[in-house]
Design a protein that fits this description.
Elements lengths: L2 E18 L2 E15 L2 E7 L9 H9 L2 H5 L4 H7 L4 H18 L3 H4 L8 E2 L2 E3 L4 H10 L5 E5 L6 H11 L4 E5 L6 H13 L4 E3 L19 E3 L9 H7 L2 E4 L1 H4 L2 H13 L3 E4 L6 H7 L8 E2 L17 E2 L2 E2 L9
Parallel strand pairs: 5-6, 6-7, 7-8, 8-9, 9-10, 10-11, 11-12
Antiparallel strand pairs: 1-2, 2-3, 4-14, 13-14
Helix pairs in contact: 1-4, 6-7
Protein name: Dipeptide epimerase
Keywords: Isomerase, Magnesium, Metal-binding
GO molecular function, one term: metal ion binding
Length: 328
């Protein structure tokens, strides 16, 4: 049967505010690839990320350039060599996983060798703001078991750390500096997180300056995000970090993400499953990584004013596996 590829750009408004060290956003802009065959359709969603030199137009064009190959029957294995890791390959890879599951008449998790997916607890993001603003947001979300705290302001992170802990005394806290700290303040900021009982600190330094992590005391485990994309630099990551944030938009899809997760664990790295700000369609394939993850951060749909139809089911911070109607 003939295959047909469709590419679309969609916009989903954010509920409230979403602010990190690199700026603020009011909407999630996603690119969706749909591969159809004989009435079956596989879908994959990606988020073009300027931090990695991606644009919406560029990612959509990269997917379009694969039209002949996809419609000619290019499979997931060949796709890994045909495109570099990144958002465009992620959309196509996840669409092919979805289509392959529908072709086979079995869940995508079965194709991935996973016996069962269970509901998991996701972190919930608190945007960067003044200590008072973040304390107020944390207090409102204090019933959620895990809070991910955006840090990385030019000043005031020590105050933010203390304010959030005071506002949410029982929550597991993760700090995410989004490359916003400097080496000179690294030890004092890590110590403040340790004193406040944080469980993890994510990407404290810029990716190009993270050599400063070598040999220092880390009173809180440190997780690579912007520094870690796929398996190519995993040996270097394992020498600097305690954990790795695996995101499908960085790995270029579920295929590489599954391989990266296994390889990271073999090197003793703790795994976090993360996401860009996107809909349930982007979160669904990432759920296949959760059985091997110590931390799950798939709260994208919770931060949107509206999600897709047939989206993931959330009960508070507990997210359930996707239905076949959504993906896989």
């Amino acid at each position: 049967m003939a295959l047909r590829l469709n590419v679309s750009v969609e916009r989903f408004p954010i509920a409230g505010r979403f602010v990190i060290s690199r700026g603020a956003r009011t909407e999630a802009v996603v690119v969706t690839a749909t591969i159809e065959e004989a009435g079956a359709a596989g879908r994959g969603e990606c988020v073009p990320y300027p931090r990695y030199g991606e644009t919406v137009e560029g990612v959509a064009a990269d997917i379009e350039r694969m039209r002949a190959a996809i419609e000619g029957g290019l499979d997931r294995a060949a796709l890994q060599d045909a495109m570099p890791a990144g958002a465009a390959r992620n959309a196509l890879d996840c669409a092919l996983w979805d289509l392959d599951a529908k072709r086979a008449g079995v869940p995508a998790m079965t194709l991935a060798g996973i016996d069962r997916l269970r509901p998991v607890t996701t972190a919930y993001t608190i945007s960067l703001g003044t200590p008072e603003e973040m304390a107020e947001a944390a207090a409102k979300a204090a019933g959620r078991p895990i809070l991910k705290i955006k840090l990385g302001g030019p000043e005031g992170d020590l105050e933010r750390i203390r304010a959030v802990r005071d506002a949410a005394p029982d929550a597991t806290l993760i700090a995410d500096a989004n490359e916003g700290w400097v080496a000179e303040r690294l030890q004092s900021h890590l110590r403040a997180c340790a004193d406040a009982g944080f469980a993890l600190v994510e990407q404290p330094l810029p990716a190009k300056a993270d050599d400063a992590l070598a040999g220092i005391e880390r009173p809180v485990p440190v997780c690579a995000d912007e520094s870690a994309h796929d398996r190519r630099n995993l040996d270097r990551i394992a020498g600097l970090y305690d954990a790795i944030n695996v995101k499908l938009d960085k790995t270029g899809g579920l295929t590489e993400a599954l391989a990266l997760t296994e390889a990271a664990q073999a090197r003793g790295l703790t795994v976090m499953v993360g996401c860009m700000l996107a809909t349930s369609l982007a979160m669904a394939p990432a759920m296949l990584l959760t059985p091997k993850a110590r931390f799950v951060d798939l709260d994208g749909p919770l931060l949107l004013a509206r999600d897709r139809e047939n989206g993931l089911t959330f009960e508070g911070s507990v997210v359930h596996p996707p239905s076949a109607t959504l993906w896989g």
